[in-house]
Amino acid sequence: KHDKYRRMEKVPMNADSSTNAFTNAMGAHIMCVYRERMFYAYRQRLYFSEVGDPAYIKATNVIKFESKITALCEFGGALLVSTVDNWYAIYGVDVTNARIERLTVHSGSVSCHTVCKVENMLVFLGRDGVYGITAVYPEMLSSVNLSSKKISNVFNNSLLQINDAVAIYKNGWYRVSFAP
Predict the structure, then answer these.
(1) How far is CA 148 from each of CA 79, 126, 133, 151, 156, rounded to the nearest angstrom?
(2) What does the alpha-carbon distance between residue 40 and residue 86 come to, in Å, rounded to a whole number?
(3) Residue pair 83/102 in contact by the 8 Å Cβ criterion
(4) What are phi and psi of 84, to 5 degrees?
(5) How far apart are CA 158 and CA 174, in angstroms?
(6) Which residues pair with 102 in a beta bridge?
(7) DSSP letter at 17?
(8) Burial class (CB in 10 A: 0-12, 13-18, 19+), 87
(9) Are 112 and 30 in contact (CB under 8 A)?
(10) How far apart (Å, rounded) are the C-alpha atoms in residues 94 and 104?
(11) Rounded to 10 degrees, what is the CA torsion of 56, 57, 59, 63?
(12) What is the pLDDT of residues 71-91, one digit of tens each?
């Protein structure tokens, strides 16, 4: 039997860090570097470090979302944050003064393991199909459904175990795997 394990280097806490924020950030299930800050997704909270110091996390360095964060990535000049239902874009160099916008998309990503950058598109597995987010211009992000009717039927029949889904982009193909 395998227990959950983390492949994470221990980071010593900065003396000025909030103990609670730091502890939650170190329990993150997803991490990302954006604009010289470390971002840590822990449940529905996104913790972020001070510039250049991944171990300095103030108590106020947190953004709360409506549900568990499922993916983080940089795309289209923004840090994108996904929940199962939505994607959000964080724009700005100084995160404390950044603009957060909910994107007009069909679905959020079911898992960070299904998000792939495919040329000029960010492709991911949503609850009911495969979607792509395009960025024609910075701050002009939109989504498109890439699923065929055949794969949509699989989603409609609730055969997908979203925790097991993984994807890769190779040789021009986005390949997704999941357990029925």
Answers:
(1) 29, 13, 17, 5, 12
(2) 18
(3) no
(4) -60, -30
(5) 21
(6) 88
(7) S
(8) buried
(9) yes
(10) 24
(11) 160
(12) 999 998 889 999 999 999 998
- Please write the tens of the pLDDT for every residue from 26-69: 888 899 999 888 999 999 999 998 888 888 888 888 899 999 99
Tell me the one-letter amino acid at 112.
C
Alpha-carbon distance of 160 to 180, in angstroms, equals 5
Residue type, 140: M
Per the CB < 8 A criterion, the answer to whether 167 and 161 are in contact is no
What integer best gives the mean pLDDT of the chain?
Answer: 78
Residue type, 104: T
Burial class (CB in 10 A: 0-12, 13-18, 19+), 138: exposed
Q: Give the model's pLDDT for residue 144.
A: 73
Which residue in this structure is represented by tokens 């100084």?
A: 94
Instruction: Give the helix/strand (H/E) hosting 126.
Output: strand 121-126
